[in-house]
Design goal:
alpha/beta; Rossmann fold; 27% strand; 35% helix; six-stranded mixed β-sheet
Amino acid sequence: MPTTELSALSEPQVAASTTALRLAGVHKIYPGSPEVRAVDGIDLEVAPGEMFGLLGPNGAGKTTTVGMCTTRILPTQGRIEVAGLDVVAEPARVKRRIGVVTQANTLDRSLTLHENLALHCRYFGWSARRSRARADELLERFRLTERADAFPMQISGGMAQRLQVARAIAHEPDVLFLDEPTAGLDPQSRLALWELVGELRRDGLTVVLTTHYMEEADQLCDRVAIIDHGRVLVCDTPERLKAEHGASMVVDLHLSAQADDALLDRLLAVTGVTDADRIASGVRVLARDTEGLLARVVSVADHAGLSDLSVTGASLEAVFIALTGRDLRE
């Protein structure tokens, strides 16, 4: 009998699914007094080959959502499917179809870079020869060939994160989950990693990522869902979200004294201003970018002890601020 790899023997054929990922009425409630609703009724669909972003502040429910999608956390209610497979009913089969990169470094420190990749393939039933060839291929693609015999503690943080992504796709999954993959990386390493992830997406891999770097999500994602308090606030392409929900200008006015209602009223009376709310440092103004707007706003705020200001243009961050009044990075 010809040699057949374990993966071919143990994995039944799965009918093609029209969605790479589907969440329907998903809740995650942690018991306690009071109970914590980490995820509070999420409905989402991600198409095959799509790069999809989950955006939100710390504690919004992003990591919990990814944890449920990757079988590490059991949902309290609802259904999650990856490539048509139920993550609760068939977790082992789901794990064969996904790759996961978490925020923590989970590389095996006792193995070389090459061994980390080859052993991962062996876990999924690949032959020794095919596993070694796949490791060679990925080291070259992720620009790590020269460090193949090094150990994880001997390489930079950027290299380690590239290796984690390479390992996550080594067994050729359908969906790659990236949970804050560039957190803590320097700008050069961050750009190098996203260039490689972009190549994977262009190859047809479905990518689901969580991030705090809004400019990356804006440039890389086909669609994004902004979530807060475990709920989806909006879900669409970055361009549509900015056009429909984002103020074209967000102005934070830093004041030496607390803003009173009279100041808010005067700011709201300025042509182009759509909203004005108190923040810890003063007042946040949402506005349309009309001619002379900033000068008019400064003129009004100057009488209230204006000490500094910051201006944000149209962005996903501005969309979130417009929807919730607070920053995505909070």
